[in-house]
Every structure is written in C-alpha cells, then in structure tokens.
C-alpha cells in the first residue's frame, strides 16, 4: 500500500457526496421523465406522441457529452445565467437516460398480455383506471431489470461531470494525479472500487424491489445471476 | 447572444474534420469490440477452469465502471507501469474496443444460445464434422440474430467517443471547443456538433430497427 494512501482516499471520498447526489438526482429525474414520456408515447393523441418521440430521439441521438457541454456552456450564453455544475449534471443525466427509460416504459406496457386490457375494458374501467390499476402495476415489474441496467449506465455517466467541475469522484482523482504522480495505481484503484460498490448497491436495491413487485403480483420471483440474467431459462 | 450564421459557416469545416476522426474511432473501436467479443464469448464457453472465471470477472468489472476512468487508466497508468505508450487516438480505439467487447461478448453468447437445441442434435445425428456444424448450421442462424445488437452498440460507441477529448483526441466536440475558444462564440459550434451526432445516429438507428424487425421474422 502506498504511503499516501490515507490522504488520497480521504481526498477522493470528498467527491463521493457529489457522485451520489448526481446519481440519485439523475435517477429520480430519469424515472419521472421515463414515465411521462413513455406514457406519452402510448397516447391516443397524435401531437402528444409526436412531442414525446421528438424528445426521445433528440436525447438518444445526440451524444450525452455534447448535451452536457451544451447545457453548461451554451445555455448561459443564450439565457444569461449559469447553472450550478452539479445541477446541470443532474439535468443532463436525467434528460438523457429518461429518453432511454421512456422506451422501457412503452415496451413494458405493450408487453402486458392483451387479455388484461380487454378484461379492463369489459369491466368498464375508465382509460385512466385501465392504465394505472391494471396495466402499469403489471408492467412496472417487467421494467425493473432494464431500469437496473439503465441506472448503472447513469452511475457510470456521472464520471462525465468531471468535465464541468462538479467535484465528483473522477474529478477529485484528476486533481490528485499531478500531485501524487507516482501513485496513480492507488488513485484509479480507489475510484474504480467506489464505482463498483455503488453499482452493487444499485443492483441489490433493484433486486429487492423486483422480489417485492413479483410477490405483490403473486408470482414467484425469478432467480437471477449477477448480471441479471434469469437462471431458469438459461437451460444448458 | 443569438445565432450567428457566419460563425456557424466558418466552424463547419473544422467540425467535419473532427467528425471524420470520431467516425474513424467508432469504426476501429467497433472492429476491436466485435473481434474481442468473440474471443471473450469463446473463452467463457470453452469453460477452461481459471481463465473462464477471470474473463467473467473482467467483463463484469469493465461493465460496472465508467469508460472515462478506463481511458485514464490506459493513458496515464500503462506507460509508467508497463512501458507501453500509446497515442491518444490508439488509446481511444483500445479503450472503446475493450469496453464494448464486454457487451458484445454477451450478444454473441445469447445469439449462439438462441439457436434451438434440435439444430445441434440434428448436426450431430448427421455426424457433420465440428467445423461444418459451426460454419454450416450454427453460425448462419446465429449471425443474423446478432447483427442488430452489434449495430446498436456501435451507435452507442459513436455517441460516447467525445469523452476522449479528456486525453486530447481531436474529435467533433473538441473541435467545437477549439472553435469556441478562438471566436468566443460557443452557441454555434456546440449546437452544430449535436446536430452532426443526430444526423448520423438517427438514420443509423432506423436502419438497425429495420434489421431488428427483419430478424424478428426469422
């Protein structure tokens, strides 16, 4: 272990807060946008579908790094005020991953068996009741594994916030590099372990939610391996 | 500050030059990812005791940590520890390639597994030689299923290349940055950079979606 290990560790840990806030904020915004845009993609109104599709394609089609630069460097030139780096970062993480999440929501709702929809129509439920009491509760359970992957992507993307000096882990490490040049192994080792741990935390929470969700639907939870692949269907 | 057409027009040649670099990175990176992914998938499938587990751990590790830090590791950590010094461009290609190989490995595995068991059994019953089983039976069915997923990863890679400006690769975004620094106008170059990404990745994703639908009918 290197002689400055403690010093390096404590300095990088100062960035942990920003990384966690960026990830949590990004995830919260992602969830909200995913449901709003995802349900809008299923709307019977053409204009609503179009607006949502535009949002999804623009944010999936332009690079996340470009979006970050745009929001942080271009927007101030257009509107005259600058966003706090961490806030700008959360906004980009949420907007970008929300566009991917919208497709997850749309796909999951579409994958609910058609008979469920027909049953809800036969019971004379209103469209809102149909969606929120019949289709969504079943779809949400299907969304959890893909959302898990999306949240891990989002966590990894928080490293990009070092470009706008949001003070998170990666930036702390880059500030240390010129000072402790001979101990780069320690610096990057600590960073990688921290990201790995945070990814495990996200996965553990999502798995727990998946089990709760499956139980509430009266299904047996699917056993999965580390990566989230269902074990039973592997069949080999 | 509003849109300045002159600055926009002036910045386009430089941005296009950057775009060529971005495309080169994406193409070469994809090539590495496609080939290395096969290697990873075969090693995992081969089940050589320790090697197979090591590859599994490596793949999981790479998939759970940021690409940006992996780029830094390759660029700043390799030279002092191993003596291997690479240019930013080569570092970028390898970082992108290895990172995405950890995703394509899974694509190949799933593609091979999607070939029904009966196909293997039939090939065995016909006592085809091992090589014919792969080239004549399994691969022709697995490859079309794999293509859309590989295409999607190439598109993702394309959109992730700008982060290489951190080690000094002169791509679209860093060209935009250079224009901005020179003219003190950031609106046009960054906006055009975004539009360039959209112009390439949107049609590409439409093609992949078509391909997906076609494969779905197999």
Layout: helices, strands, pairs:
The complex is a heterodimer of chains A (236) and B (218).
Chain A: H1 5-13, H2 16-41, H3 46-61, H4 64-79, H5 85-111, H6 114-122, H7 127-157, H8 169-176, H9 184-216
Chain B: H1 5-46, H2 49-64, H3 67-82, H4 88-113, H5 117-125, H6 130-160, H7 172-183, H8 187-216
Task: Give me a quick take on this structure.
The complex is a heterodimer of chains A (236) and B (218). Chain A has 236 residues and is an all-alpha fold. Chain A is built from nine helices and no strands.
Radius of gyration of chain B: 21 Å
- By CATH, the architecture of chain A is named Orthogonal Bundle
Class of the domain at 21-169 in chain B in CATH? Mainly Alpha
Q: Can you tell me the number of structural domains of chain A?
A: 1
Number of helices of chain A: 9
The biggest sheet of chain B amounts to:
none
Summarize the amount of helix of chain B as a percent range.
Answer: over 70%
Q: What's the number of extended β-strand segments of chain A?
A: 0
Helix fraction of chain A, binned, reads over 70%
End-to-end separation of chain A in angstroms reads 43 Å
Low-confidence stretches of chain A: 232-236
Counting DSSP H or I runs of 4 or more residues, the number of helices of chain B is 8
Question: What portion of the residues of chain A fall into strands of 2 or more residues?
Answer: under 5%
Topology of chain B as a string of helices (H) and strands (E): HHHHHHHH
Q: At the fourth CATH level, what is the homologous superfamily of the domain at 21-169 in chain B?
A: MetI-like
Q: In total, how many beta strands of chain B?
A: 0
Overall shape of chain B: it is flat
């Amino acid at each position: 272990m290197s002689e400055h290990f403690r010093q390096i560790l404590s300095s990088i840990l100062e960035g942990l807060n920003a990384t966690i806030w960026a990830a949590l904020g990004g995830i919260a915004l992602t969830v909200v946008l995913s449901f709003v845009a995802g349900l809008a993609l299923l709307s019977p109104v053409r204009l609503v579908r179009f607006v949502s599709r535009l949002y999804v394609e623009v944010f999936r089609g332009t690079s996340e790094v470009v979006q970050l630069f745009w929001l942080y460097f271009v927007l101030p030139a257009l509107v005259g005020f600058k966003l706090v780096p961490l806030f700008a970062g959360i906004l980009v993480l949420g907007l970008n991953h929300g566009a991917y999440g919208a497709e997850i929501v749309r796909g999951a709702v579409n994958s609910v068996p058609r008979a469920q929809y027909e049953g809800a129509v036969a019971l004379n439920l209103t469209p809102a009741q149909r969606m929120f009491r019949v289709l969504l509760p079943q779809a949400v359970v299907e969304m959890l594994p893909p959302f898990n992957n999306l949240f891990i992507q989002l966590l990894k993307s928080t490293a990009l916030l070092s470009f706008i000096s949001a003070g998170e882990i990666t930036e702390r490490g880059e500030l240390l590099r010129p000072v402790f040049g001979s101990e780069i192994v320690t610096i990057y080792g600590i960073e990688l372990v921290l990201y790995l741990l945070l990814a495990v935390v996200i996965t553990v929470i999502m798995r727990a939610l998946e089990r709760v969700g499956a139980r509430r639907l009266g299904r047996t939870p699917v056993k999965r391996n580390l990566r989230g692949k269902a074990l039973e269907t592997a069949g080999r | 500050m509003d849109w300045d057409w002159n600055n926009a027009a002036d910045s386009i040649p430089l941005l296009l030059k950057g775009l060529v670099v971005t495309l080169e990175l994406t193409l070469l990176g994809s090539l590495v990812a496609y080939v290395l992914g096969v290697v990873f998938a075969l090693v995992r499938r081969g089940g050589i005791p320790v090697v197979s587990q090591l590859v599994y751990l490596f793949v999981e590790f790479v998939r759970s940590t940021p690409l940006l830090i992996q780029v830094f590791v390759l660029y700043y950590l390799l030279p002092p520890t191993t003596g291997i010094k690479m240019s930013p461009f080569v570092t970028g290609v390898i970082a992108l390639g290895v990172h995405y190989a950890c995703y394509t490995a899974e694509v190949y595995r799933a593609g091979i597994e999607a070939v029904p068991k009966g196909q293997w059994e039939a090939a065995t019953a016909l006592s085809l030689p091992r090589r014919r089983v792969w080239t004549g039976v399994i691969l022709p069915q697995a490859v079309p299923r794999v293509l859309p997923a590989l295409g999607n990863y190439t598109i993702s890679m394309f959109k992730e290349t700008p982060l290489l400006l951190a080690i000094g690769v002169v791509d679209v975004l860093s060209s935009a940055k250079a224009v901005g620094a020179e003219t003190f106008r950031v609106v046009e170059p960054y906006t055009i950079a975004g539009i360039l990404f959209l112009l390439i990745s949107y049609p590409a994703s439409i093609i992949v979606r078509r391909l997906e639908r076609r494969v779905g009918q197999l």
